[in-house]
Amino acid sequence: MTKSVEFYFDFISPYSYLAYEKLKFLDYKNKINIIFKPILLGGLHKLGGITAPAFNKHKMKNMKNDCELVAKKNNIEFKWNDKFPVNSLQIMRGYLSINNELKEKFFDLCFDSYWKKNIDLSNSVNIENILNECSIDKKNFFKDIENQKIKDELKKLTNDAFEKDIFGAPTFVVNNKIFWGQDRLDYALDEYNS
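Predicted structure:
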């Protein structure tokens, strides 16, 4: 069995974005077997009875400052999104619905749009712009994300994460060990390389 790092993420999670940028800097494609695990963070929080920091003004202010500090320390281009948080259901289902060869570009464009360019990803027009850049047919995309199989797949991934005791994003799982948060990526990679 090939060793891997499972990366649980949601596009609206700023910490997922920061972790992904760190992985790109490490040239993960040539060094680390990453299995991307899309989840619906709002759904995960609901399952766990968790109030997200976005809905607590004190935590929200700290989270914004924290993300900016992490980005600066790691030379990551980052801009807090004025529309945070948004419902990520369409883009998370979309990630599951598109062809594998387009997933990486879609992934990059969603993260960059939301966390570098301050684009509102709850607006279908902005999603259509990403689809155009990826050469993804928008009619098929919006039809596919309403497909019950795709809905069930995202729900299952989110429920499976909850069953593993995952409660936030990003979370990394290596050798059945859980590492929560972008600041635990190094620990996850140490486990991967052990």
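Summary: The beta strands are 5-9, 34-38, 171-174, 177-180.
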